[in-house]
Amino acid sequence: MSYLLKRIAFYLFTAWAAITINFFIPRLMPGDPVQALITRARGQMTTDAVQSLYVLFGLDKDESVVEQYFRYLGQLARGDLGMSFTFFPTPVAEVIGDGLPWTVGLVGFTTVLGFLLGTAAGTLVGWRRGSLADLLIPVTTFLSSIPYFWLGLLAIALLTGPDSFFPATGAYDTSLVPGFDLEFIGSVVQHGILPAATILISSMAGWVLSMRNMMVTVASEDYVTVAHAKGLPERRVMVGYAARNALLPNVSGFALSLGFIVGGTLLVEIVFSYPGLGLLLFQAVGAQDYPLMQGIFLVITLSVLLANFLADLAYLALDPRTRREG
Protein backbone atom coordinates (compact mmCIF):
# COMPACT_ATOMS: atom_id res chain seq x y z
CA MET A 1 0.00 0.00 0.00
CA SER A 2 2.85 2.40 0.79
CA TYR A 3 4.27 1.87 -2.71
CA LEU A 4 0.90 2.72 -4.24
CA LEU A 5 0.47 5.83 -2.08
CA LYS A 6 3.94 7.06 -3.05
CA ARG A 7 3.13 6.60 -6.74
CA ILE A 8 -0.18 8.46 -6.35
CA ALA A 9 1.62 11.36 -4.62
CA PHE A 10 4.23 11.41 -7.38
CA TYR A 11 1.63 11.55 -10.14
CA LEU A 12 -0.38 14.25 -8.39
CA PHE A 13 2.75 16.39 -8.08
CA THR A 14 3.67 15.72 -11.71
CA ALA A 15 0.15 16.65 -12.84
CA TRP A 16 0.38 19.93 -10.92
CA ALA A 17 3.78 20.65 -12.51
CA ALA A 18 2.40 19.90 -15.97
CA ILE A 19 -0.59 22.19 -15.41
CA THR A 20 1.71 24.97 -14.19
CA ILE A 21 4.05 24.65 -17.17
CA ASN A 22 1.06 24.56 -19.47
CA PHE A 23 -0.14 27.84 -17.97
CA PHE A 24 3.15 29.61 -18.70
CA ILE A 25 3.62 28.26 -22.26
CA PRO A 26 1.47 30.88 -24.06
CA ARG A 27 2.78 33.66 -21.82
CA LEU A 28 6.42 32.88 -22.63
CA MET A 29 5.93 32.47 -26.38
CA PRO A 30 6.75 35.51 -28.53
CA GLY A 31 3.98 37.59 -30.02
CA ASP A 32 0.54 38.66 -28.91
CA PRO A 33 -2.14 36.02 -29.69
CA VAL A 34 -5.01 38.49 -29.29
CA GLN A 35 -3.47 40.95 -31.74
CA ALA A 36 -2.79 38.06 -34.14
CA LEU A 37 -6.48 37.13 -33.94
CA ILE A 38 -7.53 40.74 -34.65
CA THR A 39 -5.12 40.90 -37.61
CA ARG A 40 -6.53 37.69 -39.12
CA ALA A 41 -10.07 38.99 -38.65
CA ARG A 42 -9.10 42.24 -40.45
CA GLY A 43 -11.63 44.19 -38.47
CA GLN A 44 -11.63 47.44 -36.56
CA MET A 45 -12.20 46.99 -32.84
CA THR A 46 -12.61 49.48 -30.05
CA THR A 47 -10.27 49.53 -27.06
CA ASP A 48 -12.98 48.04 -24.84
CA ALA A 49 -13.57 45.21 -27.30
CA VAL A 50 -9.85 44.41 -27.42
CA GLN A 51 -9.69 44.43 -23.62
CA SER A 52 -12.67 42.05 -23.53
CA LEU A 53 -10.75 39.63 -25.72
CA TYR A 54 -7.76 39.72 -23.36
CA VAL A 55 -10.09 38.94 -20.44
CA LEU A 56 -11.84 36.20 -22.43
CA PHE A 57 -8.56 34.43 -23.20
CA GLY A 58 -7.24 34.80 -19.63
CA LEU A 59 -4.59 37.36 -20.56
CA ASP A 60 -6.01 40.36 -18.69
CA LYS A 61 -3.15 42.85 -18.33
CA ASP A 62 -4.82 44.38 -15.27
CA GLU A 63 -4.27 41.14 -13.35
CA SER A 64 -0.99 39.85 -11.98
CA VAL A 65 0.40 36.53 -13.20
CA VAL A 66 -0.47 34.96 -9.84
CA GLU A 67 -4.10 36.06 -10.16
CA GLN A 68 -4.23 34.73 -13.72
CA TYR A 69 -2.73 31.44 -12.53
CA PHE A 70 -5.33 30.84 -9.83
CA ARG A 71 -8.09 31.85 -12.22
CA TYR A 72 -6.70 29.31 -14.69
CA LEU A 73 -6.79 26.59 -12.01
CA GLY A 74 -10.41 27.51 -11.29
CA GLN A 75 -11.25 27.21 -14.98
CA LEU A 76 -9.61 23.77 -15.18
CA ALA A 77 -11.59 22.63 -12.13
CA ARG A 78 -14.76 23.52 -14.08
CA GLY A 79 -13.48 21.79 -17.24
CA ASP A 80 -13.01 25.13 -19.01
CA LEU A 81 -9.97 25.12 -21.32
CA GLY A 82 -10.69 28.54 -22.82
CA MET A 83 -11.70 29.68 -26.31
CA SER A 84 -10.07 28.57 -29.54
CA PHE A 85 -8.65 31.28 -31.82
CA THR A 86 -9.00 29.13 -34.92
CA PHE A 87 -12.58 28.03 -34.25
CA PHE A 88 -13.63 31.17 -32.35
CA PRO A 89 -15.99 31.37 -30.50
CA THR A 90 -16.04 27.56 -30.01
CA PRO A 91 -14.58 26.48 -26.63
CA VAL A 92 -11.36 24.46 -26.70
CA ALA A 93 -12.99 21.63 -24.76
CA GLU A 94 -15.62 21.29 -27.49
CA VAL A 95 -13.02 21.31 -30.27
CA ILE A 96 -10.98 18.64 -28.48
CA GLY A 97 -14.13 16.66 -27.77
CA ASP A 98 -14.91 16.57 -31.50
CA GLY A 99 -11.44 15.31 -32.47
CA LEU A 100 -10.72 12.98 -29.54
CA PRO A 101 -13.09 10.12 -30.51
CA TRP A 102 -11.53 9.87 -33.98
CA THR A 103 -8.00 9.66 -32.59
CA VAL A 104 -8.91 7.20 -29.83
CA GLY A 105 -10.84 5.06 -32.28
CA LEU A 106 -8.04 4.93 -34.85
CA VAL A 107 -4.83 5.03 -32.80
CA GLY A 108 -6.30 3.31 -29.75
CA PHE A 109 -7.52 0.30 -31.70
CA THR A 110 -4.26 -0.07 -33.65
CA THR A 111 -2.10 0.40 -30.54
CA VAL A 112 -3.89 -2.29 -28.52
CA LEU A 113 -4.11 -4.69 -31.48
CA GLY A 114 -0.46 -4.11 -32.41
CA PHE A 115 0.66 -4.76 -28.82
CA LEU A 116 -1.35 -7.98 -28.52
CA LEU A 117 -0.29 -9.38 -31.90
CA GLY A 118 3.32 -8.23 -31.58
CA THR A 119 3.72 -9.56 -28.04
CA ALA A 120 2.22 -12.93 -28.96
CA ALA A 121 4.42 -13.25 -32.04
CA GLY A 122 7.51 -12.09 -30.13
CA THR A 123 6.82 -14.68 -27.41
CA LEU A 124 6.67 -17.52 -29.93
CA VAL A 125 9.71 -16.36 -31.91
CA GLY A 126 11.81 -15.84 -28.77
CA TRP A 127 10.81 -19.18 -27.27
CA ARG A 128 11.60 -21.05 -30.50
CA ARG A 129 14.85 -19.22 -31.20
CA GLY A 130 17.06 -20.90 -33.76
CA SER A 131 14.09 -22.23 -35.70
CA LEU A 132 12.51 -21.01 -38.92
CA ALA A 133 10.57 -18.50 -36.82
CA ASP A 134 13.75 -16.39 -36.66
CA LEU A 135 13.22 -15.53 -40.32
CA LEU A 136 10.61 -13.07 -39.05
CA ILE A 137 13.29 -10.96 -37.34
CA PRO A 138 14.81 -9.30 -40.47
CA VAL A 139 11.31 -8.47 -41.71
CA THR A 140 10.24 -6.89 -38.42
CA THR A 141 13.54 -5.00 -38.14
CA PHE A 142 12.96 -3.49 -41.56
CA LEU A 143 9.31 -2.62 -40.87
CA SER A 144 10.02 -1.08 -37.46
CA SER A 145 12.53 1.32 -39.05
CA ILE A 146 9.97 2.71 -41.53
CA PRO A 147 8.16 5.87 -40.37
CA TYR A 148 4.36 5.70 -40.19
CA PHE A 149 3.87 8.63 -42.54
CA TRP A 150 6.12 7.12 -45.23
CA LEU A 151 4.00 3.98 -45.25
CA GLY A 152 0.94 6.22 -45.44
CA LEU A 153 2.27 8.10 -48.46
CA LEU A 154 3.20 4.81 -50.11
CA ALA A 155 -0.28 3.40 -49.43
CA ILE A 156 -1.94 6.48 -50.93
CA ALA A 157 0.27 6.32 -54.03
CA LEU A 158 -0.29 2.60 -54.64
CA LEU A 159 -3.74 1.79 -53.30
CA THR A 160 -5.91 4.87 -53.83
CA GLY A 161 -7.34 6.34 -56.97
CA PRO A 162 -10.59 7.07 -58.84
CA ASP A 163 -11.68 3.42 -58.97
CA SER A 164 -10.06 2.26 -55.74
CA PHE A 165 -11.95 0.89 -52.73
CA PHE A 166 -9.67 2.84 -50.37
CA PRO A 167 -10.27 6.59 -49.89
CA ALA A 168 -7.18 8.80 -49.76
CA THR A 169 -8.38 11.36 -47.20
CA GLY A 170 -10.96 12.01 -44.52
CA ALA A 171 -12.66 9.86 -41.88
CA TYR A 172 -15.95 9.25 -43.70
CA ASP A 173 -17.89 10.16 -46.82
CA THR A 174 -18.83 13.83 -46.42
CA SER A 175 -22.12 13.22 -48.24
CA LEU A 176 -23.33 11.11 -45.29
CA VAL A 177 -24.90 12.38 -42.10
CA PRO A 178 -22.93 11.14 -39.05
CA GLY A 179 -24.92 8.61 -37.05
CA PHE A 180 -24.97 5.05 -35.76
CA ASP A 181 -26.26 3.49 -38.95
CA LEU A 182 -24.62 0.78 -41.05
CA GLU A 183 -23.90 3.05 -44.01
CA PHE A 184 -22.02 5.62 -41.93
CA ILE A 185 -20.18 3.00 -39.86
CA GLY A 186 -19.15 1.22 -43.06
CA SER A 187 -17.80 4.49 -44.45
CA VAL A 188 -15.80 5.12 -41.27
CA VAL A 189 -14.29 1.62 -41.44
CA GLN A 190 -13.50 2.02 -45.14
CA HIS A 191 -11.71 5.36 -44.54
CA GLY A 192 -9.85 3.99 -41.53
CA ILE A 193 -8.34 0.86 -43.08
CA LEU A 194 -5.28 2.48 -44.68
CA PRO A 195 -4.26 4.78 -41.79
CA ALA A 196 -4.85 1.94 -39.31
CA ALA A 197 -2.79 -0.49 -41.39
CA THR A 198 0.18 1.90 -41.63
CA ILE A 199 0.23 2.37 -37.85
CA LEU A 200 -0.31 -1.32 -37.13
CA ILE A 201 2.48 -2.58 -39.39
CA SER A 202 5.18 -0.37 -37.87
CA SER A 203 4.05 -0.60 -34.24
CA MET A 204 3.56 -4.38 -34.26
CA ALA A 205 7.06 -4.90 -35.63
CA GLY A 206 8.54 -3.01 -32.68
CA TRP A 207 6.64 -5.13 -30.12
CA VAL A 208 7.79 -8.34 -31.84
CA LEU A 209 11.44 -7.33 -31.59
CA SER A 210 11.33 -6.16 -27.98
CA MET A 211 9.38 -9.20 -26.74
CA ARG A 212 11.56 -11.62 -28.68
CA ASN A 213 14.76 -10.18 -27.18
CA MET A 214 13.35 -10.33 -23.64
CA MET A 215 12.17 -13.91 -24.14
CA VAL A 216 15.67 -14.96 -25.25
CA THR A 217 17.10 -13.37 -22.08
CA VAL A 218 14.50 -14.79 -19.70
CA ALA A 219 14.62 -18.31 -21.19
CA SER A 220 18.12 -18.79 -19.75
CA GLU A 221 17.09 -17.84 -16.18
CA ASP A 222 17.27 -20.42 -13.39
CA TYR A 223 13.55 -20.38 -12.60
CA VAL A 224 12.77 -21.39 -16.20
CA THR A 225 15.28 -24.26 -15.93
CA VAL A 226 13.68 -25.37 -12.66
CA ALA A 227 10.22 -25.25 -14.25
CA HIS A 228 11.47 -27.53 -17.02
CA ALA A 229 13.05 -29.87 -14.43
CA LYS A 230 9.71 -30.17 -12.64
CA GLY A 231 8.23 -31.57 -15.82
CA LEU A 232 5.73 -28.74 -16.29
CA PRO A 233 4.01 -28.53 -19.69
CA GLU A 234 5.89 -26.54 -22.31
CA ARG A 235 3.04 -24.07 -22.80
CA ARG A 236 2.81 -23.38 -19.06
CA VAL A 237 6.55 -22.72 -18.79
CA MET A 238 6.47 -20.41 -21.81
CA VAL A 239 3.44 -18.39 -20.70
CA GLY A 240 3.47 -18.60 -16.90
CA TYR A 241 7.21 -18.34 -16.28
CA ALA A 242 9.07 -16.91 -19.27
CA ALA A 243 6.50 -14.65 -20.95
CA ARG A 244 5.13 -13.25 -17.68
CA ASN A 245 8.55 -11.92 -16.68
CA ALA A 246 9.62 -10.95 -20.19
CA LEU A 247 6.44 -8.88 -20.49
CA LEU A 248 7.35 -6.44 -17.69
CA PRO A 249 9.48 -4.01 -19.78
CA ASN A 250 6.82 -4.04 -22.50
CA VAL A 251 4.19 -2.99 -19.98
CA SER A 252 5.94 0.37 -19.51
CA GLY A 253 6.23 0.86 -23.25
CA PHE A 254 2.60 -0.07 -23.74
CA ALA A 255 1.53 2.38 -21.02
CA LEU A 256 3.39 5.19 -22.78
CA SER A 257 1.77 4.16 -26.05
CA LEU A 258 -1.66 4.29 -24.43
CA GLY A 259 -0.91 7.75 -23.06
CA PHE A 260 0.08 9.04 -26.46
CA ILE A 261 -3.08 7.64 -28.08
CA VAL A 262 -4.86 10.94 -27.47
CA GLY A 263 -2.08 12.81 -29.23
CA GLY A 264 -2.60 10.63 -32.23
CA THR A 265 0.04 9.76 -34.78
CA LEU A 266 0.49 13.32 -35.93
CA LEU A 267 1.96 12.78 -39.39
CA VAL A 268 -0.41 9.92 -40.25
CA GLU A 269 -3.41 12.11 -39.47
CA ILE A 270 -1.92 14.91 -41.55
CA VAL A 271 -1.17 12.59 -44.50
CA PHE A 272 -4.70 11.16 -44.52
CA SER A 273 -6.40 14.42 -43.39
CA TYR A 274 -7.90 12.41 -40.55
CA PRO A 275 -9.83 14.72 -38.17
CA GLY A 276 -8.13 13.69 -34.93
CA LEU A 277 -6.15 15.58 -32.31
CA GLY A 278 -2.95 15.26 -34.34
CA LEU A 279 -4.43 17.20 -37.23
CA LEU A 280 -5.99 19.70 -34.80
CA LEU A 281 -2.59 20.29 -33.19
CA PHE A 282 -1.02 20.88 -36.61
CA GLN A 283 -3.74 23.41 -37.45
CA ALA A 284 -3.35 25.10 -34.05
CA VAL A 285 0.41 25.52 -34.52
CA GLY A 286 -0.06 26.98 -38.00
CA ALA A 287 -2.70 29.44 -36.76
CA GLN A 288 -0.88 30.30 -33.51
CA ASP A 289 -3.94 29.09 -31.62
CA TYR A 290 -2.36 29.09 -28.17
CA PRO A 291 -5.48 28.05 -26.19
CA LEU A 292 -6.03 25.03 -28.43
CA MET A 293 -2.35 24.03 -28.29
CA GLN A 294 -2.45 24.48 -24.52
CA GLY A 295 -5.55 22.30 -24.20
CA ILE A 296 -4.20 19.51 -26.40
CA PHE A 297 -0.83 19.47 -24.60
CA LEU A 298 -2.61 19.26 -21.26
CA VAL A 299 -4.85 16.40 -22.37
CA ILE A 300 -1.85 14.49 -23.77
CA THR A 301 0.20 15.04 -20.59
CA LEU A 302 -2.56 13.93 -18.23
CA SER A 303 -3.28 10.91 -20.43
CA VAL A 304 0.37 9.83 -20.27
CA LEU A 305 0.36 10.20 -16.47
CA LEU A 306 -2.84 8.17 -16.17
CA ALA A 307 -1.46 5.46 -18.45
CA ASN A 308 1.75 5.24 -16.40
CA PHE A 309 -0.28 4.97 -13.20
CA LEU A 310 -2.20 2.07 -14.73
CA ALA A 311 1.16 0.52 -15.68
CA ASP A 312 2.24 0.73 -12.04
CA LEU A 313 -0.93 -1.13 -11.06
CA ALA A 314 -0.13 -3.75 -13.70
CA TYR A 315 3.37 -4.10 -12.24
CA LEU A 316 1.84 -4.79 -8.82
CA ALA A 317 -0.17 -7.62 -10.34
CA LEU A 318 2.61 -9.07 -12.51
CA ASP A 319 5.73 -8.64 -10.36
CA PRO A 320 5.59 -9.66 -6.67
CA ARG A 321 8.85 -7.79 -6.02
CA THR A 322 6.98 -4.47 -6.23
CA ARG A 323 4.70 -5.50 -3.38
CA ARG A 324 7.20 -4.54 -0.70
CA GLU A 325 5.00 -5.43 2.23
CA GLY A 326 5.17 -9.06 1.08
From TrEMBL:
Sorted UniProt keywords? Membrane, Transmembrane, Transmembrane helix, Transport
Source species, domain of life: Bacteria
Q: Where is the ABC transmembrane type-1 domain?
A: 100-311
Q: Which sequence ranges are marked TM in the entry?
A: 7-25, 102-127, 139-159, 188-209, 254-275, 295-318
Q: Where in the cell is it found?
A: Cell membrane; Membrane
The protein's topology relative to the membrane is:
Multi-pass membrane protein
Mind naming one GO cellular-component term on file for this protein?
plasma membrane
GO biological process entries: transmembrane transport
Could you tell me which SUPFAM superfamilies the record lists for this protein?
Answer: MetI-like
Family under the similarity heading: Belongs to the binding-protein-dependent transport system permease family.
What protein name applies here?
Peptide ABC transporter permease
In which organism is this protein found? Saccharothrix coeruleofusca
